[in-house]
Design a protein that fits this description.
Layout: H1 22-33, H2 38-52, H3 54-61, H4 65-71, H5 80-90
Pfam family, one: dnstrm_HI1420
InterPro entries: HI1420, Lambda_DNA-bd_dom_sf
Protein name: Addiction module antidote protein
Length: about 100
C-alpha cells in the first residue's frame, strides 16, 4: 500500500538558501521574468535579498530596510527604479532578449 503525502502538510519552499551566487541569482531571476508577473518578481527579489541580508541590500540600493521589505513583499508591484537598484545591489542586471531566442 502506498503512503500518500498531503501537499498541505509539506513545509513552504524557501529559495533563499539556494541563492548563494550571482549565477544562481541570475538563473532564478531569468526564470521568474519568464512568468511576466510583477508580484512574482517582487517576491523573488525578496527571496534573494533575504539570502544576502536585507539590511545590506537596502543600504547598497540606497533605500531604507523598511521600504525594501514593503517593495518586495509578495503581492506588491515595485517600481522599475526599485527593481533596478536592488538588482544592482545584488550584482546582477536585467537583460533583454528577442522572444524567438
Amino acid at each position: 500500500m502506498e503512503k500518500r503525502i498531503n501537499a498541505a502538510d509539506l513545509p513552504d519552499f524557501d529559495a533563499a538558501p539556494y541563492l548563494d551566487s550571482k549565477v544562481a541569482v541570475a538563473a532564478y531571476l531569468t526564470d521568474i521574468l519568464g512568468a511576466n508577473d510583477a508580484s512574482l518578481l517582487a517576491a523573488a527579489l525578496g527571496d534573494i535579498a533575504r539570502a544576502h541580508g536585507m539590511t545590506e541590500i537596502a543600504k547598497s540600493a540606497g533605500i531604507t530596510r523598511e521600504a525594501l521589505y514593503k517593495a518586495l513583499r509578495p503581492g506588491s508591484a515595485p517600481r522599475f527604479d526599485t527593481v533596478n537598484r536592488v538588482c544592482a545591489a545584488l550584482g546582477v542586471r536585467l537583460v533583454v532578449q528577442p522572444l524567438d531566442a
